Queue: 4 jobs
Job 1
Amino acid sequence: MKVIVVGASGETGTSVVHGLIKSAENIEVTALARKSSLDKPEYLALKDLGVTVSTVDLSTVSNELVALLTGADVVISCLTSGNAEHVETQNNLASACKKASVGRFVPSFFGPICPPRGIMLLRNLKEDLLDHIKSLYLPYTVIDVGWWYQLSLPPLPSGRLANALTIPVQTISGDGNTETALIDKRDIGKYVARIIVDPRTLNKSVFVFNEIWTQNRIFDLMEKLSGEEIPRSHVNEQALQSKIKTANEAVAAGDITQMRNLAMSQYELVLGIRGDNSPERAKYLGYLIGKDLYPDLQGESLEQFINDTLAGKIERLYARRR
């Protein structure tokens, strides 16, 4: 099987490629990169693992792009979907996949469960991409993965995790008792490797995750394993909605620097207040559930992840970014 990954140098892309390489399936992996990124350590490391790395220009649906994709069984996009320009880039990729008769396209979703529109700007943009895919009648599979362990831990009062947590959790959303589905970012790839060879997932959406947790239970576990008492500060829905409104207005006025604040506030709402990110909500929205499809596939536990983080064994998120 020939699989092409676009955006392989990012956190999700790296996990996907490693999962494909380690898969029991006979998968030939090619990573497509911008010419300016070819010398990035991430791509050099992929070459050492036997991955073919080729240059790509996604600014147009060119004959060269179509030729690169021709013969691929699966194309997986791990590109950022943060604004309309990013969506247009992925639209071009999808259009080229259609012209190249690619067997299956996996768009860059890889996030928490959320209703299609009206809740999160990032989700709106992803749904715009999915609309384009469906307009082409391009075979596809959407994969969502919940929220990362790597983004779920609070800092410790002692500061011992200051260099380990890129984005520590500073506040608890609501009362802290809303359940949400979590995954170790490093496990994403092994789920993807199973999904893309499964005929049951063609033209479907699939939700994979490792465990279900609440923020209160995460804080409790962190205290137990670290031996430290962690202060707890809560943010209510009204405060979050106010932050979202302010950031939305700024983004609408052209201040793109507020996109991150908007996204994180909307994530807090979805994960900690609304409770969207659950297998029950996913089933309602039409998703297949990974644990139903692959009961033999086990991911890392949050407890082990925390122990490894405390022991300094977990690479800091985005540490490889230049």
Job 2
Amino acid sequence: MSSTVRIVHLDPDWFGTVDGERRAFERAFESVAVEAVDVSPEESADDVARRVGEADALLTHYTDVPGELMDATGCSVVSRYATGIDGIDVEGATERGVRVTNVPTYCNREVGEHVIALALSCLRGLPQYDASTADGEWEWDLVDPVRPFSELTFGFLAFGNKARAAADLANAIGFDCVAADPFLDDEDVRDAGVEPVEFDELIERSDVLSLNAPLTDETRGIVDADVLSRMPEASVLVNTSRGELVDEDALVDALEDGPLLSAGLDVLATEPPSASNPLLDRDDVVVTPHAAWYSERSVEALIEKGSEAVVAAYERREHEGIVNPEALE
């Protein structure tokens, strides 16, 4: 590689420009070239590699980065400008000495607020009321039941930063909050004003179940027909994590036949979804376009924190955004 650090952004259409990243890296490196390569989901790793050429760092929002792409580009850093790292071969990166980064804390508040917004919309039947009113009706008793939030339990599957932000709000509103997270000590959960429970109890008690777990082999499809059937009557499912956590066919059945009252989904198994996805044409489902992370503030924080992590990883310095610190050695 030349003395100029070459950084390639694989998804420049995400913000429409890489000017923010360019400014951040120009402050950090004496000589840097920040380039953009629009990648389509249909392109293979070989196709992407031919277009990218050599690079010191690859930045991606949603494009997968397998080991073959790391080899072909010779990169030393792969950065996911988001929180989730599914689609990046972290194990393969570590074996190659490639540092992988993400941005774990840039949108905690935004996602927490979105979780609550989806939950309250579902519990109060806002989509049903809106659709009915648009059809010329004026009926207040369309949704049953509508219950005080103080009588309901708000559950979290995984209790990381974003779930904690949502729990702060849920507690303030008056919900009883519970969480299941096998990676946390019970005391850590209690310190947030939330009751720690096991997975089965979480499912059976949660009037609102918020999915906040990362997508892994263990969590893929974790919310299946059996889990949905064990949720309380007239309960609500909220997912702001990854669509693949949920069996969507089973979700439709649970909405049709019970026990679910409604669902609030910021993520789907396939994004963007096809027009034929049955979840899109229901008054008892609120769907937003993977927007829970978004605010003007979070965009600025994503670029700033993401760039800081890339620089630290390139220079082999410790940083909270480095996913595989063992690759620093």
Job 3
Amino acid sequence: MPVLSVVSVPPLNVPSFEEINSAAFQGTIEPVERVLKDAKIDKKKVDEIVLVGGSTRIPKIQSLLQDVFDGKELNKSINPDEAVAYGAAVQAAVLTNQAGNEKTQDLLLLDVVPLSLGVEMQGGIMAVVVPRNSPIPCQKSKVFTTAADNQTTVTFPVYEGERLMTKENNLLGEFSLSGLIPAPRGTPELLCTFDLDANGILKVTAQDKTTGRKADVTISNSTRLSAADIERT
């Protein structure tokens, strides 16, 4: 028969709680710093700091957040547990053209690319064409060339991810552009265009600027990483 016993454990105080969770607390600050860097915004130009999620009530998290913004006062006018719902309601109003309020009628809500999109170059290196956080829809291009003399076909493996080496990113698909005129390596100019529509459908096209020959591939959302996968990258 199982026997229960009482173990003498000291009560958990604030310093101990903060020490035990220090890594987790610091982990909440890293996305904030990354967003500022991606947006190329000076933290001094941030107007309001809104707390989102019940865990932001923890004093240590608030303290760390204030440190990032040099002691700027946090905006606590919105219930952290309801902040996401507020945002969802505003977005729903905008999407259904029901935002009659002056404060919302000029809002423009854009989806962005969660992970950079690009192609694999020689050596397995990722060449980014569409940077992370680019607004959707978007179209961006980059010129590539051949890696060997007299090369008549070039393959374009398409990836998403933030790692330098493609083996650590997610392969979305690939296609080949053939019929190139034999020439010394580095001579042909191959224009690679990424066209991402509002539904997340990606079309990648490569065109030989000399002959006009084209090849392309269309990639649906089903092959892209899920929100949970992106969170783990």
Job 4
Amino acid sequence: MQTQEQPPSTEQIREFVIAGHGNLEKVKQMLAENPKLLNASYRWNENDTETAVQAAAQVGSANVAQFLLKQGAPLEICTAAMLGMQDEVDHRLTEDPRNTNATGAHGIPLLPHAVWSEDPRLVQLVFERGAKSGATLALHNAVSRGNYGIVEWLLDNAGPDVQAKNFQGKTPLTVASERNNDSIVALLKKHGAID
């Protein structure tokens, strides 16, 4: 396999960032062919750019994020939250409280990233420190992972919209029903979700 020394093309960057959403083997292969892809950012539109590690963080793809970090990708607070790095997140929030407003790819706030960690203590920490935006996306993330404890905590504390649809046009109740997660279905209905 020959390594490229030239800057990656826009199409290569796009393909690499898309692979960053969970395709570890493709990420490894593309990075081996062109190491300059590591921190390359794809511009989806005028105000929306994304790197592969940000792509991994926004969808909860820990294995891809960990690989990219080991290769030298920067550790941003949203990625640290997704990976469950509570001490790192706490340190960054203490160092600069404005980090509660940090966003990852596509402007996704810190709270939904923290939910991917599946650590209720981390979710509570970022919320209590002021990262309150994105509660509805956080609920969608918790439901998709089947994490009853975090779903319950979000419903009790964060005020997510239980009827909001995700990017696939599905409500949290629909996703929980499709996954036969009866306990989350009951919990969502208890909090006002309807078919």
